[in-house]
Amino acid sequence: MSRPRGIPRSLGSAVLLVVAIAVSLLFLLPVLWLLASTFRTASETFASSSPLSWSVLWPRQLTVENLASAVRSGFLTALANSLFVAVVTVIVGLAISAAAAFALAIIPFRGRSAIFTVVVLSFLVPFEAIAIPLSRMFSEWNLTNTLLALILPGLGNGLAVFTLRQFFLGIPSSLAEAAHLDGANWFRIFWSVYLPLTRPALIGAGLILFLFQWQAYLWPILVTSRQELDLAPVAIAKAFGAFTTDYGRVFAETAILALIPAIVLLALQRYFVTSVASTGSKE
Amino acid sequence: MSTAIRAGGRRHTGRSRRDLAAGAAFLAPTIALIIVLRVAPALAAVGASTKSGLPGSLAAPTFVGADVFARLFAKESFWESVRQTLVFNILVNPIQIALALALAVLLTRRLPASGLWRTLIFLPSAVPLAGSTIVWGIALRPDGPVNGALEILGLPAQPWFTSPDQVVFSMIVLASWIGIGYWMMFLIAGINDIPPVYFEAARIDGAGALRTFFSVTIPMLRRPLLFVLVADTVANFVLFAPVQILTSGGPEGNSNFLMYDIFHKSYELSDPYEASAELVVLLVIMVAIVAVQFRLLRTPEGEE
């Protein structure tokens, strides 16, 4: 926190502040450009970028035609699919991860730490690495082109289990013992004692599960071929790769795709930070 | 007295058996998912990599042992894919983590409105990889705004994704825009966990900003830093969407990273056996990295 002699502290801080503002703007510019391009024609977008003019970040003629075009091409179906898959994954995934985390943190049994090792290790191998052989198995089981196929891989998440387990470990074990003496079984202790205390970690783990599904791209193209089952990222990539690309529509769809997790993350940022902290130096 | 002990002992075994049953019940769905989603496909890939058959043939594929691996390892194109994957990863991961760390340090100092800057840098992390692919795929077009900005600065327009020399760099930009802010949040959480007394002690000892960074921040941040580096590497090793959407592995195979190469061989070249062998290679690398990561996640005194 010290500074070179002779430079007043305020000047050093001012330089750092300028750096912080400049970097923030750099990260923000593509977002602004994406939003501006959503509300103007594609020809205006390209005209404003070469040669570059100030209006590159601001539409001269506001239009909602791109959004309308996205709606007409069925993007809302893809968006609804993505939302459905993500929400079901969060609900079911949280139940599965919380139960596993509870067993691994609270219930004493032989071999617990070995199982913890297996759980974290196997889920830390990125899903993409085994997606292709898994998609062959899914097609043998006739799961291709089902919502179930899209949901299943998101349900097991090592980071979610890890985050929840760390949180459970931080809850005083005297609570569980007191409940035991009152004759409560493990399920009751889990449901009535631990879960109500776990809200921040549940939100953090829920975010991890949600973002995994919202990002999904390789898996959906492996297990779905029908357009009505396209998830939002797949629908956008198809629109982008089409023979004649409607760039305005692609911008609008990408903006919507980014907006939903942005709202969720902004609203729940502090839970994300708490959950993230548990992977670090704590314990 | 002795009956009391025996009764207590019996109660104890009864309880530990009940605990085991409860543990098994709570873990059953997770174990089932591990078997279906990780173990079975990994075994299937290993199995398929030892077989060979003619594409489209109805005859069952025959067991050929390590022949497919031998065929794969003899191919120049496989090694090119390995090389480009390594080049990309050796660049992208240190760049992302170094910038994430620099920003984390900057934004944990008491700057005016530091929460706002943090949020603005974190915001792109919300953009899915496919979305970042679209944004940068268009922004880096020859007639896109990035080249427009270069021209205003008096610099020549660049070919970006269309040039074999710049495609890896362009991929790094695309991945870092959403990656840096994400990993920065982990490191900010880590820095905030460092007890302030250490910084206070450094200040009293008259340590400068650089000295404090290397003697306090870095050593105290070792665990989150290594975790983030390994997690980032694992994610970037299987980078797929930008390659498939923008370059199809080109130009001149320079963005033909392993994950895309495997996908391409499986579906477009219809060589599932060689693709499986290549997948096994990728899996071995992933398991090795994850094993390192797991060691880092364990606490020094064991995992309890």
The main sheet of chain B comes to:
2 strands, antiparallel
User: Regarding CATH, which class of the largest domain in chain A?
Assistant: Mainly Alpha
The total of beta strands of chain A comes to: 0
Q: Which structural class do you get from the secondary structure elements of chain A?
A: mainly alpha
In the CATH hierarchy, the architecture of the largest domain in chain B is Orthogonal Bundle
* Estimated helix fraction of chain B: over 70%
Tally of individual domains of chain A: 2
CATH superfamily of the largest domain in chain A: MetI-like
Q: Tell me the β content of chain B.
A: under 5%
The end-to-end span of chain B amounts to: 35 Å
The CATH superfamily label of the largest domain in chain B reads MetI-like
The spatial strand order of the largest sheet of chain B comes to: 1-2
Summarize the helix and strand pattern of chain B as letters: HEEHHHHHHHHHHHH
List the helices and strands and how they pair.
The complex is a heterodimer of chains A (283) and B (304).
Chain A: H1 9-38, H2 42-49, H3 65-72, H4 75-105, H5 112-124, H6 128-140, H7 147-155, H8 158-169, H9 174-181, H10 186-194, H11 199-215, H12 218-223, H13 232-241, H14 247-277
Helix pairs in contact in A: 1-14, 3-14, 4-7, 4-8, 4-11, 4-13, 5-8, 8-11, 9-10, 11-14, 13-14
Chain B: H1 2-49, E1 51-52, E2 62-63, H2 67-73, H3 76-107, H4 114-122, H5 129-139, H6 145-152, H7 167-193, H8 196-204, H9 209-220, H10 222-237, H11 241-247, H12 258-268, H13 272-297
Antiparallel strand pairs in B: 1-2
Helix pairs in contact in B: 1-13, 2-13, 3-7, 3-10, 5-7, 5-11, 7-10, 10-13, 12-13
TL;DR of this structure?
The complex is a heterodimer of chains A (283) and B (304). Chain A is mostly helical and 283 residues long.
Describe the structure.
- The complex is a heterodimer of chains A (283) and B (304).
- Chain A contains 14 helices and no strands.
- The longest helix of chain A is centred in the N-terminal third of the chain and has 31 residues, at 75-105.
- Chain A folds into two domains: 9-63, no CATH class; 68-277, MetI-like fold (Orthogonal Bundle), CATH 1.10.3720.
- Chain A is an all-alpha fold and 283 residues long.
- In chain A, helix 3 packs across helix 14 (247-277), helix 4 (75-105) packs across helix 8 and helix 4 (75-105) crosses helix 11 (199-215).
- In chain A, 72% of the residues lie in helices and 0% in strands.
- With 304 residues, chain B is an all-alpha fold.
- Chain B folds into two domains: 2-49; 72-297, Orthogonal Bundle (MetI-like fold), CATH 1.10.3720.
- In chain B, helix 2 crosses helix 13 (272-297) and helix 3 packs parallel to helix 7.
- Mean pLDDT of chain B is 87; it is low at 1-9.
- Chains A and B meet through helix 1, helix 2, helix 4, helix 5 and helix 6 of A and helix 1, helix 3, helix 4, helix 5 and helix 6 of B.
